[in-house]
Every structure is written in structure tokens, then in C-alpha cells.
């Protein structure tokens, strides 16, 4: 059969496989800019042009492209390398964060731009909600993408030494917009095998037997791995600097399955198709066991014990009651506090499961490479992870390997949001690679992300609070039940963190908490943006608003009367971290931004006639780094050509740390960012890095980079003084040279002199930071919205966010983090929910059933940064990647209460839920 296709002006005549889609056909030919985000036509990351028309290549049969011209993102630029105008616009506006979706947006926009002024121009570019309905971005909140399409330029090019505080574009921007940025699976590995997982159809069962004979007969199948092939070492999939923070309740492959979707066996084959067929042919005999999906039921006597037989050494709080972790504490006496109150409000709030939905799914590629000393091979794992160093540590512990025999590296990571602070793929892939001594790849499907990875913890929060008539809080009490699912990865930590800052931000003499992280037979929960604070802040801020209403007070005034202030101790019933301080304070400024927005706002006038209009505020506080130590090493070196190299361990997944680390270094060395190269997220480049989580990329890794760069600057001045004989204080480090009282020594010459003297050690410096002491960041969100009483439809009329980020290192990127956090939180507020049935099976395992925010759903949020400088963060900076998420849901709920008079206590507040509540609240007269 003849076949011919033109791709980016290059001809191919290899026929596709039967049923092959265009996406995989193109990627097999090295066109990695075509991304896999969903394989269902939902996300648009795979968009290409076929004869100039944009198509989702995951749905487009490769055979249909015969005789046609295909253009991918790699082919948008001219043959001479000049960027397409749309690529230039996305660079100038920084219209991306992780960049995994960017090729899809570029291809869609370029096709519509090409239609401008033609007979096919139907005005879509003037109606972006319609034009971009086939493309999803999880990171940006879409404002940056809109600005890119409209040609708004945001990026700056500062002078030497002036990078900090400027809106520099991402260093990888040119690669992102041309499709040459390399994500986890954008590599060609000779002899690669593919791994697929057989997963449990039962919520709780013991495996009686596994018959793999038919699977092994499938052509191309190389191995089938079961629990009999896996190590018997218990561990946690969660990655923390201190492994004891999580219960060791997990095996690589277990003889007992505890949720639908748990892995049962792994098939390794020459192709994904053969591996999938091998999975279908495995015969498993199960002994089904009783199961429980409700956490309250799981704690009751007589409930099925999910981790029966595991002892105290695995650190499960109460195995017999399915309690993975718990915390109890009281300050003062809440009973006395409620007796003193003039108003007491008590309610139960519920938050749902939410999927991280990073467009790059979990997975990794493992292969062998020679050791540097030539003494054999070592295992290299290329993974979509936020924690390369902790993952290496875990793999070495599991398989008894020394650290020099394992390397873990992350390419550019396509989104994380806490979901990749786990080890969901590396353990099983390493097992297969070590068994077969061959390269092995596992790439999760989108469905597997929903039932084989993790979600946000669903919470049930019983809360009671009291206040005097003058608005003074007297007592706060919470009972929190977190559903951690079948395994306890992050369960105790999320539960513990959820009742920290949410309590501490308000002053009250009497506080009490009882919190439980509970096992159930459902998909495990894990780390998610906010790490538990988003759930409890919804309850706390709703209650504060309700108390203010019942006292007849302005909710802002009520908050200002009760919030902690500069120098106050952060008091919680679970104790105080000795290294946590208010090292800068911008909460008062945040609330003033909201007050000003309310006073000046006229957006209510845009509400349709007859709609209900309301406004609401919420605030939040978060520690700027995790407790217990979060470590980062960095090294900055002068290179032979007079430029610099930065080595740092933290991963880049749209969080912007690469840009910030370059800005910090450029400032310390009085140079420009184009003279800096960076190596990162690789266990080879530095001694250790805890990982890119807990908002630590700037305040921990950035601090290590600052220490290293500042130390190198001192060394260069000292060596230049020695070399020239000029007093050190007269030596000024510049962009490309050191000026020693008029004697100018280029950096290249300085390097050569050091090399000649055997002093190259002076041309590099190391930095280390341990994440302590820590400060706190503050955020406030305000909405004005309108509600249609006849349908429950909600329109956001205005969205304002105030962020206390300390010294803002990069306003463009920081604003993007805030906008993205608000957008993700709005998704969780309005419609996102991972639904499970009565057996614990996920029923929303696809984007079209799960409902991610799209362009049309998101308002443009006005972002305001407070004028503070932190005493602990690098150059006065604070973290700002997780915290914008936390006040969004309660601010929305408070605005909804103001509009409707109804207190909504359960997330998400879907349109039908709002309509039903309105119908109950205002029944039709005479009906």
C-alpha cells in the first residue's frame, strides 16, 4: 500500500499502523511538539494543521492525512528560523506557564489568524471564548493567553544587575513556542519497551491467583510482573524530606487491593498495543472483601479494616479504626468561650475531590547509561516529578541500590500542583528495567490519572464559632474528617496542615480542634495546591462572614478586629512551630485593597435586570515553606567563555523558578540573564534538593542560589584584586569584566588566570539553605457576582485579588501564578468534582465528564501586590504559588450568600445546586 504525507515541508512515505492516530504517527517521527493531554479530543494540546485547518490529531486517523500537508508547531517558524507572528506574540506576553498546552493554542490561533480577511473569516478571533473552546490550559487562568492573542507585550529586558523585580520572560520561552522544549516523554530511547498496568476491578479483595500464561504468549510481550516479583518493602508514595511524615502502607505490587484502579500486575512489551493485549489476557482470581467508602463509617467499630495486620512500625495512627493520622488539641476552654459569646454559629461544610489535571500525565522512562568512572552501568529514570532527589532516595531504598547507581532527572514538567510530589510510576518502571536490563516506559492515560494517581482530599468540617456583640471572637472549634482514600500518602500531613494557619490567622482565647485522616476503599488522595488549607479556609471564612452578618457588622471590619497583627504569635490548638514568624505583614494592605475595590465598584450595574447581585471577601494565611526542614543546594560557576552556569536541583513545571533563579544570580553578579545557563532537576547537578513543593522554589532554592551567587561575586572580586594588585574594594564586578580602578579584566581572562594558577575552585561557589526560619504570606479575594434566580446561572462581574508576596521578583510571572491559582480554585468552586459511585469507582475519568475550566468560564482577575519586604526570604521575597487558591471558594460563597441570602456549605456550587437552593428558599406562591 502506497502512502505519502508532507509534514512541515518534509515528505514521509511510511504507512501508519491500522487504527493509528495522527498524533502518535507524528511523535514517532520526532515531532514532540504534538502533545498528549487527553487522547479524547478534549484538551487541544495535540492540535496541528491539515491543509491549513486546525485538527485534534489524537482523534484524526493518520490514514486520512494521506496526500495532505500537515503543519506542527515545529513548522510554524520560517525555514530561516524567524518566528511566526503568533509565536512572537506568545513570547512577548508570556502566554504560558508550564507550556504543555501552548503548541495547541499557537496552532489554533495561527489558523484563525490566517483566515483574517478571507471568505472563511467568521470573526472567531473577536470572540475568544468561541475560538478557544477546544483548548484547555490548567496553569494560566487564560488572561496571559488572551493577551498573547491580542498582541499585548509584557516582557522586559533589564540592564545588567537590574533583573530582580522586572518582568522577564521564561528562559525556555523560545523552546516552548517552537515545540522544542523537551518534556518527560520527548526523547528517543533505542530498544524502548512499554509498560502497561492491569488494575483492580474491585474496591477490596485478596488476590488468590494470577495466571499469566496467555499474556506471555502475546507476540512482543517480554515480561509479566506480579506481587511475587516485587519487593516486600512497605513505603509511601508521598515524597517528603522526612519519610516518617507518611505511613509506610504501600507495596510496589500487593496481594491485597484496596481500591478500584489499584495496580495488580504489569506487562512489559515491545509496543503499547502488545502490553495492553497482555493485560487483557491475565486471569486473576480474587477473594472479594468487605469495603467502606465513607470515612465516618470507616471509623466506627465493626467497619472493614483496610490495612489489617500492619503494626506500629508503619506509623498508622489506629489501624483497627482506619485512622491514618489524627490530631487533637485545645487552648483555653471552648465551652467557656461559647458561654461568653453573644452570637454562636455552628455549621458543617464539605469539600469534594478535585483532580490536579496537569496536562502532562504521570509517567517515566528508565534506561541504563555508563557510569562516569567507567565501572559499569547505572539506572537513569527520566520522570515527570517535582522531587527528583527524594524519588532517587526512595528507589535506592526499595531496590537496595547505592545512590551513585541511580540518577533521576526531570525534563520540563507539564504541570504539577502537588500531584507529582508522589512516586506513582518510577517504582514499577524501575522494577521492570532492573528485571529486564532494558529501557522501559510507562505513560499514564488520562483515565489512569483519575483512578490510578491521587486527588485533593475531600473534607467534612464541623465548625463552631462565637463572638461578643462588639465583634470580638471568643472561641473557634473544628472537627475535621479527611478522606485519605486507600493509602495514607500525605494524609496525616494534609490533615495537620489544614488546621494550622487557618486557625492561627484569627485571635481567639479559646480554640479546639479534633482532626482525622481516614482510610476508605477509594482512590487515594494526596498533595494538592494549598495542602489542606483550601478546604478549611472555606469553612473558617464562611463562618467569619456569617458571624459578621448576624452581628450586623461589615465583614471587613469584623475581620480587621480579629486578625493577627505584626509581631503576634500564631496560636493554634496543635502547637506553634518555633521557626515560623510574621517576618513581614501585608494583610492590612490586602484588606484595604478589597475595601477600595468595593468603594469604587460599579460592576453591579452590568448585571442583567432581575438578577440578584452580591459581593464577598475572604482571606488566607500560609507558611512560606514546609515545616521540619526543606533543603536546597546550589552552585554558581564562571565558565571559560566568561559566562556563568547555575546548578540547582528544583524542578520547573510552570512555577517560574528557573526565571527567578536567573534573576537572582544576575543581580548578585551584576550581569544580564542571557549570560547565564542553568542546569536543574537532575540528581547529578547538585548534592541535594528536597523538591519543588510547598512553594519552596523561590524562598528555599532561590535563597540557596542567592548565597552561591553572592559568594561567587566576592570570590571574583578577591581574585581580580590578587591578579591585578589593586585593592579589593576598588574592584567592581560588571557584566563581562571586573574593573579594578581602571584596569579592566574580562571574565574570560580572569578564568584563564585562575586556570593557570590552579585556582579554578575560586571560580565557583556553593550555596545551601535549610528552609528555616519561615515566614507567612497573605492573600485576600473579592468577588462581585450576579445570580439568575430563574435558572441558577452565576456570572462573575468582577474579581480582585490582593497578594502579599513580599518583594515581587518577577511581576509578570507572579501575577500569572495568582491568576492561575484563582482560576483553578474557581474550577473547584463552580463545577470540578471527581465523582465516585457506591463501590468507590471513579465515574468522571475523562475531561469531558470531569469539566475543567475553559476560556469562557474565567473572569479577568485584577491582581494587586502589597508593598512588603520579608526579613527571611531572598531579597525580601515570599512564596506565592499555592496561597492564591485558598481564599477563592469562601469569597465566592460569601458573595453568593450576599446575593441570595443562602449560606452554601458544600462545594462545588453548581448551577443546579444554586437553583434548587433558591427554589427551596423562595417557593412559588400558591404552588
Description:
It contains 25 helices and 31 strands. The longest helix has 29 residues, at 696-724. A seven-stranded mixed sheet has the order 8-10-6-17-14-15-16, with helices on both faces. The chain has a five-stranded mixed sheet with strand order 2-1-5-3-4, covered by helices on one side. Helix 2 packs across helix 5 (143-150). With 927 residues, it is α+β, with helices and mostly antiparallel strands.
Describe the structure using short key phrases.
single chain, 927 residues, alpha+beta, seven-stranded mixed beta sheet, five-stranded mixed beta sheet, 25 helices, globular
Structural class: alpha+beta
* Helicity level: 25-40%
Strand order of the largest sheet: 8-10-6-17-14-15-16
Low-confidence runs of at least 5 consecutive residues:
none
Question: Overall 3D geometry?
Answer: globular
Task: Report the count of strand segments.
Answer: 31
Query: Helix tally?
Result: 25
* CA-atom Rg in angstroms: 28 Å
Calculate the mean pLDDT score and round it.
Answer: 96
Largest sheet entry: 7 strands, mixed
Strand content: 15-25%
End-to-end separation: 70 Å
Oligomer: single chain
Amino acid at each position: 500500500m502506497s502512502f505519502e504525507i508532507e509534514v512541515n515541508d518534509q515528505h514521509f512515505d511510511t504507512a501508519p499502523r491500522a487504527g493509528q492516530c495522527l498524533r502518535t504517527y507524528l511523535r514517532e517521527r520526532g515531532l514532540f511538539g504534538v502533545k498528549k493531554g487527553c487522547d479524547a479530543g478534549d484538551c487541544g494540546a495535540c492540535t496541528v494543521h491539515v491543509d491549513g485547518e486546525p485538527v485534534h490529531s489524537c482523534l484524526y486517523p493518520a490514514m486520512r492525512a494521506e496526500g495532505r500537508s500537515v503543519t506542527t508547531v515545529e513548522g510554524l517558524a520560517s525555514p530561516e528560523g524567524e518566528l511566526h507572528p503568533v509565536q512572537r506574540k506568545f513570547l512577548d506576553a508570556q502566554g504560558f506557564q508550564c507550556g504543555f498546552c501552548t503548541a495547541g493554542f499557537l496552532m489554533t490561533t495561527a489558523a484563525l489568524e490566517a483566515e483574517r480577511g478571507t471568505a472563511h473569516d467568521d470573526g472567531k478571533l473577536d470572540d475568544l471564548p468561541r475560538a478557544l473552546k477546544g483548548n484547555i490550559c490548567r496553569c494560566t487562568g487564560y488572561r496571559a493567553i488572551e493577551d498573547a492573542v491580542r498582541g499585548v507585550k509584557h516582557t522586559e529586558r533589564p540592564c545588567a544587575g537590574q533583573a530582580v523585580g522586572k518582568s522577564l520572560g521564561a528562559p525556555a520561552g523560545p523552546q516552548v513556542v517552537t515545540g522544542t522544549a523537551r518534556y518527560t516523554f520527548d526523547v528517543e530511547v533505542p530498544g524502548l519497551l512499554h509498560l502497561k498496568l492491569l488494575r483492580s476491578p474491585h474496591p477490596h479483595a485478596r488476590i488468590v491467583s494470577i495466571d499469566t500464561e496467555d499474556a506471555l504468549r502475546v507476540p512482543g510481550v517480554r515480561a509479566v510482573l506480579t506481587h511475587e516479583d516485587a519487593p516486600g518493602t512497605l513505603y509511601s508514595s508521598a515524597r517528603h524530606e522526612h519519610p516518617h511524615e507518611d505511613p509506610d502502607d504501600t507495596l510496589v505490587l500487593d496481594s491485597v487491593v484496596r481500591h478500584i484502579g489499584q495496580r495488580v500486575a504489569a506487562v512489559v512489551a515491545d509496543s503499547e498495543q502488545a502490553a495492553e493485549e497482555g493485560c487483557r489476557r491475565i486471569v486473576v482470581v480474587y477473594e472479594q472483601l468487605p469495603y467502606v467508602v465513607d470515612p465516618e463509617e470507616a471509623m466506627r467499630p465493626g467497619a472493614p479494616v483496610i490495612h489489617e495486620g500492619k503494626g506500629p512500625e508503619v506509623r498508622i495512627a489506629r489501624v483497627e479504626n482506619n485512622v491514618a493520622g489524627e490530631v487533637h488539641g485545645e487552648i483555653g476552654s471552648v465551652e467557656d468561650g461559647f458561654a461568653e459569646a453573644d452570637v454562636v454559629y455552628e455549621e458543617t461544610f464539605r469539600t469534594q475531590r478535585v483532580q490536579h489535571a496537569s496536562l502532562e500525565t504521570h509517567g517515566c522512562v528508565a534506561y541504563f547509561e555508563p557510569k562516569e568512572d567507567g565501572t559499569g552501568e547505572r539506572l537513569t529514570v527520566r520522570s515527570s516529578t517535582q522531587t527528583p532527589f527524594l524519588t532517587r532516595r526512595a528507589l535506592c531504598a526499595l531496590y537496595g541500590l547505592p545512590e551513585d547507581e541511580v540518577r533521576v532527572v526531570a525534563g520540563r514538567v507539564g504541570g504539577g500542583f502537588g500531584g507529582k510530589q508522589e512516586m506513582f510510576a518510577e517504582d514499577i518502571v524501575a522494577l521492570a528495567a532492573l528485571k529486564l536490563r532494558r529501557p522501559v516506559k510507562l505513560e499514564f492515560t488520562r483515565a489512569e490519572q483519575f483512578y490510578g494517581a491521587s486527588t485533593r482530599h475531600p473534607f467534612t468540617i464541623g465548625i463552631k464559632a462565637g463572638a461578643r456583640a462588639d465583634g470580638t471572637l471568643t472561641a473557634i472549634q473544628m472537627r475535621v474528617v479527611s478522606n485519605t482514600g486507600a493509602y495514607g500518602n500525605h494524609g496525616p500531613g494534609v490533615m495537620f496542615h489544614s488546621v494550622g494557619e487557618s486557625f492561627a490567622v484569627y485571635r481567639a482565647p479559646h480554640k479546639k480542634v479534633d482532626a482525622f485522616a481516614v482510610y476508605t476503599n477509594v482512590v487515594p488522595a494526596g498533595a494538592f495546591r494549598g495542602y489542606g488549607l483550601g478546604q478549611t479556609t472555606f469553612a473558617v471564612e464562611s463562618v467569619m462572614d456569617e458571624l459578621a452578618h448576624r452581628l450586623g457588622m461589615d465583614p471587613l471590619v469584623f475581620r480587621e478586629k480579629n486578625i493577627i497583627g505584626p509581631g503576634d504569635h500564631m496560636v493554634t490548638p496543635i502547637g506553634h512551630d518555633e521557626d515560623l514568624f510574621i517576618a513581614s505583614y501585608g494583610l492590612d494592605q490586602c484588606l484595604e485593597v478589597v475595601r477600595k475595590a468595593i468603594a469604587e465598584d460599579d460592576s453591579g450595574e452590568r448585571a442583567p435586570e432581575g438578577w440578584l447581585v452580591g459581593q464577598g471577601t475572604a482571606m488566607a494565611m500560609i507558611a512560606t515553606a514546609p515545616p521540619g526542614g526543606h533543603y536546597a543546594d546550589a552552585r554558581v560557576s564562571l565558565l571559560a567563555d566568561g559566562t556563568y552556569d547555575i546548578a540547582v536541583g528544583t524542578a520547573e513545571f510552570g512555577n517560574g523558578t528557573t526565571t527567578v533563579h536567573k534573576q537572582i544570580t544576575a543581580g548578585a553578579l551584576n550581569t544580564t540573564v542571557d549570560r547565564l545557563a542553568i542546569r536543574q532537576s537532575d540528581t547529578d547537578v547538585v548534592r541535594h534538593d528536597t523538591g519543588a513543593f510547598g512553594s519552596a522554589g523561590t524562598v528555599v532554592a532561590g535563597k540557596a542560589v542567592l548565597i552561591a551567587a553572592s559568594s561567587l561575586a566576592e570570590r571574583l572580586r578577591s581574585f581580580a584584586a590578587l591578579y591585578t594588585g589593586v585593592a579589593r574594594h576598588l574592584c567592581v564586578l560588571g557584566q563581562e569584566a571586573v574593573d579594578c580602578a581602571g584596569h579592566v579584566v574580562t571574565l574570560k581572562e580572569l578564568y584563564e588566570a585562575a586556570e593557570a594558577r590552579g585556582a579554578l575552585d575560586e571560580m565557583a561557589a556553593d550555596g545551601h539553605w535549610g528552609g528555616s526560619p519561615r515566614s507567612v504570606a497573605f492573600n485576600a479575594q473579592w468577588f462581585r457576582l450576579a445570580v439568575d434566580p430563574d435558572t441558577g446561572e452565576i456570572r462573575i462581574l468582577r474579581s480582585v485579588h490582593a497578594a502579599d508576596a513580599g518583594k515581587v521578583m518577577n511581576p509578570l510571572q507572579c501575577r500569572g501564578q495568582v491568576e492561575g491559582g484563582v482560576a483553578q480554585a474557581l474550577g473547584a468552586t463552580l463545577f470540578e468534582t471527581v465523582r465516585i459511585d457506591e463501590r468507590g469507582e471513579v465515574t468522571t475519568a475523562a475531561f469531558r465528564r470531569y469539566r475543567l475550566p475553559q476560556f469562557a468560564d474565567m473572569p479577568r482577575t485584577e491582581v494587586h501586590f502589597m508593598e512588603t519586604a520579608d526579613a527571611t526570604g531572598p531579597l525580601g521575597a515570599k512564596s506565592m504559588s499555592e496561597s492564591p487558591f485558598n481564599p477563592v471558594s469562601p469569597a465566592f460563597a460569601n458573595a453568593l450568600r450576599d446575593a441570595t441570602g443562602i449560606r452554601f456549605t458544600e462545594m462545588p456550587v453548581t448551577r443546579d445546586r444554586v437553583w434548587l437552593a433558591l427554589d427551596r428558599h423562595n417557593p412559588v406562591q400558591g404552588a
